[in-house]
Amino acid sequence: MMRSSLALLIALIPFSVSAQSIYKCTDVNGSTTYSSSRLDKNCKVISSGPENSLPAPKARPAGAAANPSPSGFPRVAEDAQKARDGDRRHILEQELAGEQRSLEQAKKELAEQEATRGGSSDRSAPYRDRVGQHERNIQAIQKELGNLK
To answer: What predicted TM-score, i.e. pTM, was given to this entire model?
Structure first.
């Protein structure tokens, strides 16, 4: 517990105050306080000097990407990428059509279940769940199609 408090205190100290000491002070009740200044004679230095400072992060060039690819990372030709995107669109459109058929079938089964059971909520709940699942699947596929270039 005390080590985690110390680590938190050290993490909260601004990095620009690298030459400042950190004191651990214990009062008469046994409570421990960490401070950047000596509060009384019971305070002990637990850290001082620049060993607690971290170097400033290196500046990124103005035009640099957030996550640049390594220099040896393979590149895909533009026409190959367009073909892949087209294949992906085609697959998503097929999945969307299949989900729409499944949704219609699930709605039909739900209507039949409610008609034969008199709308009993306990027995028709799985059918409603299935309809909801197909509706969510359709929304997700439409979102993916919308994200394509």
So the answer is: 0.49
